[in-house]
Amino acid sequence: MISDLIKNIKGWFGDSEGGFNIKVSQKNLKNLSPGKVITFNNLPEIIYNSLIGKSIDLDRLQFEVKLEIRYNEDGFEYKEFKIEDDGMEYWLEVVRDLGTWSISIWKRLTDIDEAVFMKDGKVVDTIQYENQTYNRDASGSTKFDVLDKDNPVSGTIGYWRFQCVEDPKKAFSVSDWMESGQYECAVGEWVKERDFEILVFSGSFQ
User: 3-state SS of 44-73?
Assistant: First the structure.
């Protein structure tokens, strides 16, 4: 498991002052890429809920960045990273707007009933999911590039974003992968920079 490897390498390099364990900041978010490992200091609710009933050592819960997707919406660019550990999969979205970075973590939903997000062939304005209400606050389309050397994919998706009424840190998204005709839903949660760190095999991002 990746955590075993990280544990050994941390022993070789010493503590975080040597640059191995790097606190996330505006400066180094742009360096997040596949092969890096991140650890959450304050576990997001999405991950915490996935751990209920499982036997996992929280001190060794670390996620390896497996894949990067880049989006370009009329010149506005942002990134999404697939992170995995021990069979768990999430997506970390990193957006830079007007010099400020926004970070959110998402969990793809499988086998969701289309009636939850669509009526009469159109995506609805309000979604009810797990006893919470989400109101649409953004929609549009964006080009994407999956940076996978074995299976690179490019195309366009339509998207709809919803904000939770009861809990503003939660979000819901609907994506239309136009080339395939498939719709995909995900639940999200905003993450603060101080809540996670990036682990690197070299000494720093410099």
Answer: CHHHHHHHCCCCCCHHHCCEEEEEEEEEEE
